[in-house]
Write the structure tokens for this entry.
Amino acid sequence: MRWLRYVIGLLLALTLHSLLDSFFPNALAFFNPYVILVVYYSMGGNVLGAIVAGVVAGFVQDAFSGAIFGLHAFSLTVCAYAVATINSRLVLRGTLPFAACLGGAVIVNELVIYILVNVLLRQKVEMFEQGLFVKTIFTLLFGVFVYQLLLLFLREEPIEATQRPMGW
Amino acid sequence: MAAPVDVIPRRPTLLFIVVLALLFVLMSLSTRTRYVGETRTLFERTVMMVFSPVPKLVNWVGGTGSDMYHGYLDMRRSVAENVSLHRKVADLTSENLKLRQTDSDLRRLRALLGYSEQFQLQTTMAEAIMLDTSSRFKSMVIDSGSASGVEVNDAVVNANGLIGRVVLTTKDMAKVQLVIDSNCSVGVLLERTRREGVLRGDGTRNAQLYDIPSLADVHPGDQLLTAGIDGIYPKGIPVGTVVTAEKGPELFKNILVKPSVDFGSIEEVIIIHTRKIPSAVQGYTP
């Protein structure tokens, strides 16, 4: 069931991605729907599931963007692992912890991409700090909005919030 | 009795490291073969194919809604236009007859001069369904793929000029690398002076022209056309306009070029089936 919800979330993220690419080609410079999905899933604290969720969401983002294939998969996996590891040790629930995790994940995601682009392509990324700032703010705003909607309509915490994995 | 073996490691950290290592290898392979052929893209193509109904559906819904709205507006305008168009048709018909005559004269004169007719390149029309110009990698997804005869390295243009080249195909979609992508290079020539150079995207909405000597005659406003020397783009397609041409620190000029295509509003595109990359270039790995 939890995977079904993840798949639906992934399809919605891809729908948003295609919608914005079709009608507002620059909008994805301002926020990243895949990070929101991965953070929401990883808040459950299941590290293994979070890694898989990060890889799959990253591959989908890579397939429909011009990036090196695997770039977003790498960065989202790092974010997913970090958020899930923190949440497997600390019980973070509510809007503020979600916003903190999301903000941190966006920053980590952008930093990982920045480093990989420098390492693999030896390219300078223009206006990195400004882009990072804007993307963090807008992703946070949109992510918190989505989180509130989910709380309102589904009346539940992030996926797996009440199901701690055994032994991890 | 042998102990059961865990397929999934109990320590997720180990799995995490293994996954990152595999992804890094995948990225390295992608980077190495980014410019040549489709060997690296089997997995990428599969992911794209699995999820392709989503962007297609979004595009269909958006297109249908837009068509209905514009259809209503157009219907109101079309009545008035229809009258004026009838008049224009009469004018254009007579003009067309004159041009046909001119064309046949031109063919006859060319034959007399011994010029060969330019071969006709096959083309396919397609529609842009995803346009990614916001990230560092500029690309576009179009709704025609290998089933329509689209192949890797086919040139993509529209009425304004050069858009890019196909870098990946699935059965019914293709990914296009835009000329403003910093990994894209195009052999170009200045229309006025016929000086050849290499155009490369600068990661923004513009591009840089390289390999133009400091003493070369280049001015803002000069038009750039494809040179047809790179084996991908046919000669003579408009590429852009020189914005600034300054003396560089070394032997070459720093030239900023504004592409002739507005990459913010691409809808229909034409795919030119060129497929004449020299084997030496195909084997090249950067």
Notes: The first helix of chain A runs from residue 2 to 23.
